[in-house]
Design brief:
The chain has 189 residues and is of the alpha+beta class. The protein contains three helices and eleven strands.
C-alpha cells in the first residue's frame, strides 16, 4: 500500500512538472510574450492622466489618455495585434484597438479618439458606449478597481468582419476567435 502511494505521488509530481513553465514554452530560446507600460508597473497604480475625464469630479489631472504600451516575445506567426482593456471588477470593456500591423511592437501615449487613428497606421478602434460615447480609449472611471490591458497576437492581418458600427463586445469576440497568444498588464485605479 505504501509503495502504491509513493508511486502515485511520484507520478503526480511528474505530471505536474510537465505542465510547468518550462513545458509551456514551445521555444525555450525565445522570450515569453510580455506587455508593459512606461507609465506604470504591472499591478501598480495607473497615473491620473490615464483616468477618464467623464467621471464628473472635475479633476483637471484626468485627461483620458491611453498609456504607452510595449510588447515583446510575440509569436513569429502573428499577422497583426489587438489590444483590449477590461475593468476586471465589473466586466466593462473600456478600449479595443485592432488591426495593429505585425511589425509594430508598441503604442505611444494618447492614441487618437477616432475610428482609424493616425498611429499605428492601419489600425482601427471600436466605438465605446458607456459613461461617454466615442471611438477609442476610455480610461478608468471607478476607483479601487483593477484594469487589465491584453495584447492579442492574431492569425489574421485584418478583422474584416468588423466596421465602424461594431461594438466593443463584437470586436472582442472577433479578436478572441483569431488569437494565437496573449500577454497582459494590470493596474489599479
Amino acid at each position: 500500500m505504501r509503495r502504491t502511494r509513493i508511486a502515485l505521488f511520484a507520478l503526480l509530481v511528474l505530471c505536474a512538472a510537465s505542465f510547468g513553465p518550462a513545458a509551456a514554452s514551445a521555444n525555450p530560446g525565445r522570450a515569453a510574450f510580455a506587455l508593459s507600460s512606461a507609465a506604470f508597473a504591472d499591478g501598480g497604480m495607473i497615473p491620473k492622466v490615464h483616468d477618464c475625464a467623464s467621471s464628473g469630479d472635475g479633476d483637471p489631472g484626468k485627461k483620458n489618455e491611453s498609456p504607452p504600451l510595449a510588447w515583446s516575445g510575440a509569436p513569429e506567426q502573428a499577422k497583426s495585434y489587438a489590444i483590449v482593456l477590461h475593468d476586471l471588477d465589473n466586466g466593462i470593456i473600456h478600449w479595443v484597438v485592432y488591426d495593429i500591423p505585425a511589425n509594430i511592437a508598441g503604442l505611444p501615449q494618447n492614441i487618437d479618439h477616432v475610428y482609424q487613428p493616425t498611429v499605428p497606421a492601419g489600425s482601427r478602434q471600436a466605438y465605446y458606449r458607456g459613461s461617454a460615447n466615442f471611438f477609442g480609449y476610455q480610461g478608468p472611471c471607478t476607483t479601487n478597481h483593477t484594469y487589465e490591458w491584453a495584447v492579442h497576437a492574431l492569425n489574421k492581418e485584418s478583422l474584416t468582419e468588423l466596421g465602424s458600427a461594431s461594438s466593443t463586445q463584437a470586436a472582442e469576440a472577433a479578436i478572441d476567435a483569431a488569437t494565437i497568444a496573449t500577454a497582459s498588464l494590470r493596474g489599479s485605479s
